[in-house]
Description:
Blueprint: H1 2-7, H2 9-12, H3 17-26, H4 28-35, H5 42-45, H6 48-65, H7 71-77, H8 82-89, H9 100-127, H10 136-148, H11 155-158, H12 171-177, H13 184-198, H14 205-225, H15 235-238, H16 248-254, H17 265-293, H18 303-312
Helix pairs in contact: 3-6, 9-10, 9-12, 13-14, 17-18
Amino acid sequence: xxxxxxxxxxxxxxxxxxxxxxxxxxxxxxxxxxxxxxxxxxxxxxxxxxxxxxxxxxxxxxxxxxxxxxxxxxxxxxxxxxxxxxxxxxxxxxxxxxxxxxxxxxxxxxxxxxxxxxxxxxxxxxxxxxxxxxxxxxxxxxxxxxxxxxxxxxxxxxxxxxxxxxxxxxxxxxxxxxxxxxxxxxxxxxxxxxxxxxxxxxxxxxxxxxxxxxxxxxxxxxxxxxxxxxxxxxxxxxxxxxxxxxxxxxxxxxxxxxxxxxxxxxxxxxxxxxxxxxxxxxxxxxxxxxxxxxxxxxxxxxxxxxxxxxxxxxxxxxxxx
Length: 321
């Protein structure tokens, strides 16, 4: 043990307790053998090196119990399974100090904190376009500061009632919106509402979270409800949410609560066609402008006008597309 002590510079210069604990965890099997040794072990346990290791673990246990452990340290030690952490953190104690339930709670608190940061970041990135929402940079800066400060932020601080005050009004919407962050159909509805409201209101993060997004959730729910009987849905009613959607099956998985049936090839193919309708209407409108510009003879009953009428108005059902 004296030889190992002389070689162990990390423990000898233990200015960073978390770094020392991680080093000990790397050698968990060795220390498990030491602290679980039986027989004539008095000299072993009285060795200064072993007592120093015990003291460091004891000190780290106290940090955990006081909730003074940093989020970065939690992240690092929780890479290890509870089957390792539980005995390791109790090497220094005759009686259990750190229970499996406590470790489970540490995991819950850590993952909950990181999840909340991810939910908020996702909301600000996806639903608060920086060129339109005047104060979103303040919220992004706060999230960035939190991410950059995980090495100093303690668990106790994250559990304080006022810790999330800056984002308090946004949290519920951010949590709900996370599911739809990568949904093209949801974003189509959001973008449509955003364009309407941006002309009428000065957009802020609070307005997006408390006013615009609830309206988007309601409208998206209404549109998705229609797909319970999708074959009788009119093309003009369905084209908004499927505009330019490329991966139909991913979107169908997201709205599976609304379509309580096996995804048929016919439905998938129909939605692929439907996703192209808005673009085709735009192209036909551009073609109509060209026809007028060059004074090409045409009537309201020719193919160009008829196709636009069918696609734009209520003359076509999805079941017939």
